[in-house]
């Protein structure tokens, strides 16, 4: 069966996401990803050039942040905590980044870029001093990423056993403080 260019690229990205999630960045190979996609490894290189470029494309992630200006100020922390829990559970791309970012500098940079580019501007719209947005976004990221690491990657039993509502109840107030208090 012959695939179009866009279908081939989509198959490569799907295989890469699965492979990076299962094996991590370091152990994933172009050859294995190509095999998973049912294509020759040269096609992966043709579309993406390097493993790092492939990873960046596979780990492209939109946080899909809500407009915090639409949320009552006293509920922003809980709303953001709830949003992130839903995003972690719906899409494995951010988990791939988190796993690989701990050991690979380029991946860590990708993670920083995603959070800085997407979270800080949203926070900047709801605080009195938008110059504080990068610091507040960084502090919020400590909670969101820490929870994700411990709940989804390291699989700490108490955190895994919590309901999503429990997680929001625990980290929402801290996010609230970091974001708008």
Order of helices and strands: HHHHHHHHHH
> What is the number of helical segments per DSSP (H or I, 4+ residues)?
10
* Structural class based on helices, strands and sheet pairing: mainly alpha
In this structure, how is the largest beta sheet organized? none
The amount of helix comes to over 70%
Q: What is the CA-atom radius of gyration, in angstroms? A: 18 Å
- The number of strands is 0
- What is the count of distinct domains? 2
Q: Uncertain spans, ≥5 residues at pLDDT below 50? A: none
State the end-to-end CA separation.
Answer: 58 Å
Mean pLDDT: 90
Strand content: under 5%
The coarse overall form would be: elongated
List descriptors.
single chain; 181 residues; mainly alpha; Arc Repressor Mutant, subunit A
Describe the structure.
The chain is an all-alpha fold. It folds into 2 domains: 5-58, Orthogonal Bundle (Arc Repressor Mutant, subunit A), CATH 1.10.10; 68-179, no CATH class. It has 10 helices and no strands. The protein has helices spanning 5-27, 30-37, 41-48, 51-58, 76-90, 93-101, 105-124, 133-153, 157-161, 164-179. α1 (5-27) packs parallel to α6, α5 (76-90) packs across α10 (164-179) and α8 (133-153) runs antiparallel to α10. The longest helix is centred in the N-terminal third of the chain and has 23 residues, at 5-27.
Topology at a glance:
Blueprint (H helix, E strand, L loop, with lengths): L4 H23 L2 H8 L3 H8 L2 H8 L17 H15 L2 H9 L3 H20 L8 H21 L3 H5 L2 H16 L2
Helix pairs in contact: 1-2, 1-4, 1-6, 2-3, 3-4, 5-10, 6-7, 7-8, 8-10
Brief overview, please?
With 181 residues, the chain is an all-alpha fold. It contains ten helices and no strands.
């Amino acid at each position: 069966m012959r695939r179009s260019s866009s279908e081939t690229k989509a198959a490569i990205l799907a295989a890469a996401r699965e492979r990076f999630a299962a094996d991590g960045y370091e152990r994933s190979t172009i050859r294995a990803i190509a095999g998973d996609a049912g294509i020759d490894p040269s096609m992966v290189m043709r579309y993406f050039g390097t493993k790092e470029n492939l990873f960046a494309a596979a780990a492209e992630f939109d946080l899909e942040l809500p407009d915090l200006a639409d949320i009552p100020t006293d509920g922003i922390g809980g709303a953001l905590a709830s949003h992130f829990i839903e995003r972690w559970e719906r899409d494995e791309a951010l988990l791939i980044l988190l796993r690989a970012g701990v050991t690979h500098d380029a991946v860590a940079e990708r993670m920083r870029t995603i959070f800085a580019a997407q979270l800080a501007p949203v926070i900047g719209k709801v605080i009195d001093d938008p110059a504080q947005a990068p610091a507040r976004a960084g502090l919020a990221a400590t909670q969101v990423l820490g929870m994700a690491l411990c709940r989804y990657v390291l699989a700490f039993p108490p955190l895994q056993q919590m309901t999503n509502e429990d997680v929001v109840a625990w980290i929402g107030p801290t996010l609230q403080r970091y974001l708008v208090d």
